[in-house]
Amino acid sequence: RVEQVVAWEALDSRARPTVACRVSLTDGSSARALVPSGASTGSYEAFELRDGDERYDGMGVRRAVEHVNTTLADAVRGLDTAEPDAVDRVLEELDGGHRFERLGGNAVLAVSVAASRAAAAAAGVPLACWLHGPGALPLPMPMVNIISGGAHAGRAIDVQDFLVIPVGAASFAQALEWCARVRDAARRLALAGGHAAAVLVADEGGLGVPLGGNGDALDLLTRAIDAAGLTPGTEVAVAIDVAANQLWTGAGYELAAEDRTLSAAELIDEIAGWVAHHAVVSVEDVLREDDWAGWAAATRRLAGVQVIGDDLFATDPSRLAEGVRRGAANAVLVKVNQNGTLRGARGVLQAAQRAGWATVVSARSGDTEDDWLADLAVGWNAGQIKVGSVHRSERCAKWNRLLELEATEDTVFSNPWREAPR
Ligand code: PGA
Ligand code: ZN
């Protein structure tokens, strides 16, 4: 049973305050959790409570911490963590509002994750096993950021993420090694092309190089896969996250680096061109979050491609249901802090899986050294995980946790791309 809950203010990878929390149980076990925070956030995400005072330029989370230490601690004390979801149900009821506007989604998530971890500790098993139950643990396919743009790289390029998916890898360890090899090849090629900024790292650890256009980034990525001794398409495929909310001006989608503003149909044409000319198998947030009809048309147009909704769904069950009903997207990005509780985020993931959709568990651009996301991806059988690049320790913490699980537990590398694409 929950005995004590203590929260404090910690820092995320952008030096912004975030909520950290420890949950202690009556049997003596305890666990800690730190929550992440996005930059290219959608409007429908759970509310992030910030102090808005002079500390940290208004980004302090002392009020959220205070909520954990008082209201939330009082509400969950005595609850039996061995009973799945007992804590999360109470947390969800407590707020009243459906996006945690009162208590703060950051306060709620810290307690939700720490309580689950404490339950796993009490049971003497890793969080991944506690969530998964008996049987071999399914390790996810990594989607790894190589070139960063948008809100994560001072708009070096318009598209936010150019990623690779090592679709031909036989194990998680091999998948990660291939991605690291491609990133290094891309860095060397960018340096050779005069982009000194390739030695720097963007918010998610990718190369924040001002390449000019999105097509140039795709060219560089394809050359890097080649230079790494891997075959584009069959061994290493390409994914992009357009993060189109960020391009939307109210009148169109602005590609600033190319000095062009596109309509929804023109942007989808542009993306279809990238898919046709490069080994792109997955696209994310191809349009803004409110254009349901545009999304449905884009999903039909991009048949055979994984079309992921991130800001579109904001890990919200009713938005996902709407997407499934309309055929808007065919995959969902699951970010637990968009939802607020593990139970809520898992519900969205499972609803997507029941609809036959692919699922990707994702970190945030402001993240921490905490590695619980890796255990969620495994325990929930997400199939895919997106954490950023293979640089910066808040990213590597998750990769290293997956390497640890592969080395120490009974696992199977679940590769959703083995039969599927191109
Ligand atoms: P965010 O970006 O964490 O800044 O929202 C991640 C993404 O868009 O996938
Ligand atoms: Zn995204």
TrEMBL record:
(2R)-2-phosphoglycerate binds at residues 160, 335, 364-365, 386. GO terms for molecular function: magnesium ion binding; phosphopyruvate hydratase activity. GO terms for cellular component: cell surface; extracellular region; phosphopyruvate hydratase complex. It catalyses: (2R)-2-phosphoglycerate = phosphoenolpyruvate + H2O. It is found in: Cytoplasm; Secreted; Cell surface. Residues 2-131 form the Enolase N-terminal domain. InterPro entries: Enolase, Enolase-like_C_sf, Enolase-like_N, Enolase_C, Enolase_N. Its EC number is 4.2.1.11. Gene3D superfamilies: Enolase-like C-terminal domain, Enolase-like, N-terminal domain. The active site is at residues 204, 335. Pathway: Carbohydrate degradation; glycolysis; pyruvate from D-glyceraldehyde 3-phosphate: step 4/5. SUPFAM superfamilies: Enolase C-terminal domain-like (SSF51604), Enolase N-terminal domain-like (SSF54826). Binds a second Mg(2+) ion via substrate during catalysis. SMART domains: Enolase_C, Enolase_N. Mg(2+) binds at residues 241, 284, 310. Keywords: Cytoplasm, Glycolysis, Lyase, Magnesium, Metal-binding, Pyruvate, Secreted. Catalyzes the reversible conversion of 2-phosphoglycerate (2-PG) into phosphoenolpyruvate (PEP). It is essential for the degradation of carbohydrates via glycolysis. Belongs to the enolase family. HAMAP family: Enolase. This is Enolase. The lineage of its organism: Bacteria, Bacillati, Actinomycetota, Actinomycetes, Jiangellales.
